[in-house]
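Whether sequence alone determines local backbone shape is best considered at the level of individual chains. When preparing material for the folding task, we compiled for one chain both its residues and its backbone structure tokens. The sequence in question and its structure tokens are set out directly beneath this paragraph.
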Amino acid sequence: MMVDQHCKLCHAPVRIYTHAKLGRFYLCTGCEFIFKDRAFFLSEDEERQSYRRHNNSIEDPRYVAFFYKFLDDAVFPYIGTGRQGFDFGSGPEPVLATLLEQNHGFQMNIYDIFYAPDKVYQGKKYDLITATEVVEHLGDPLHYFKRFAGLLKPDGVLAVMTLFHHNGISHFNNWHYMRDRTHVSFYTPKTMRHIAEQSGLKVVHTDGIRYTTFMLDD
């Protein structure tokens, strides 16, 4: 049903969906953004405890391969000669930043709200910004995409990984990705194009599944 609520990205009307265990979600009829009602967000302590259960390591070849699939598809075909990088939401072990430094000559900065909270990115510009399995955790994604745009060099690349939903209640209801209680924002390629337009960015690539590559709009 329609409700007296509008999309926080494009202001189009939304439909409401309520999950018995996970709470209320709003499904945008315009840009296809899905977002959880803030009343059902985890507390900061609950979110931190959830992340502590993650066990992602550079010693895990499957996890490394997971990142290289992303790099080969969404990063390496688009990055120029610069090598200043920033990994936003680097997690407890900054595997992606380590791979880029050790194997590809990048000088990487990292930021994570829990594990690397120093705002080392302030006053800097980057050739590459990565955000992998991060933007689904952001309650105000447009704010962050605008910040990313402000941190890019003129020919810089922003590469984002987040699994796209299929824009339907049936799929969403049975989707494992929405069952992670730390996930509050869900996207499609259409959503990403709208975010780009609002952030001074342009989409230069998407695989239609989970990867989006942006550059500054001319």
Q: What stands out?
A: Residues 61-75 form the longest helix (15 residues).
